[in-house]
Amino acid sequence: MNFIYIIILKIQAIFINSIKTATIKTAVKRGLKKGNNLYVEGIPNFGSEPFLVEIGDDVTLAEGVSFINHGGDARVTKRIEKYKDGRNFGRIKIGDNTFIGKGSILMPGVSIGSNCIIGSLSIVSNSIPNNSIYAGIPAKFICTIEQYGDKLLANNVLYPRELEK
């Protein structure tokens, strides 16, 4: 029975990976700009206008990250004569060497700098400077990347590096 379970898990992983690959390729064909070494866990949601998304080099998107590159709210306001030309569109840009945590939502018009970490389940509604860590709803400043790195070193558990493989 364990053998069947392992086979089912392998088939599931192949299926999810195929959907992820197709989603990224389709988004690129629709204008997504992505740098080198993009790592995506799970199936990304680049929004209905992937041409409004730009991702730098060495970026990691954890599972369930969503890009909201326009607001559907204009469906209401465009029916009111005074507001018919109002739109809520915005480019979303992610710098190099940045991690976006699981389930995070990136709102229209935000830029996330290089060397940043966005905590899981965050809603990023304002731009974030380089070398910083933000988390929460809405995402708020937690610390600098240097402060976080120092904390990691201070709490480091030493073990043989070959175990990382």
Helices, strands, pairings?
Elements: H1 2-29, E1 33-34, E2 39-40, E3 53-55, E4 60-61, E5 66-67, H2 74-77, E6 92-94, E7 99-100, E8 105-106, E9 111-112, E10 117-118, E11 123-124, E12 132-135, E13 140-144, H3 145-154
Parallel strand pairs: 1-3, 2-4, 3-6, 4-7, 5-8, 6-9, 7-10, 8-11, 10-12
Antiparallel strand pairs: 12-13
Would you write up a description of this structure?
- The protein is globular, with a radius of gyration of 19 Å.
- It is built from three helices and 13 strands, in the order H-E-E-E-E-E-H-E-E-E-E-E-E-E-E-H.
- The chain has 165 residues and is of the alpha/beta class.
In short:
The chain has 3 helices and 13 strands; from the N terminus they run αβββββαββββββββα. It is an alpha/beta fold and 165 residues long.
Primary descriptors:
20% strand, alpha/beta, 4-stranded parallel β-sheet, 13 strands, globular, 6-stranded mixed β-sheet, 165 residues, 3 helices
Shape: globular
The largest sheet, given as strand count, sense and whether it forms a barrel, is: 6 strands, mixed
Biggest sheet, spatial arrangement of strands = 2-4-7-10-12-13
Count of individual beta strands: 13
Q: How would you state the average pLDDT, rounded?
A: 92
- Determine the number of helices (DSSP H or I, runs of at least 4 residues): 3
Approximate helicity band: 25-40%
Distance between termini?
29 Å
Poorly predicted runs are none
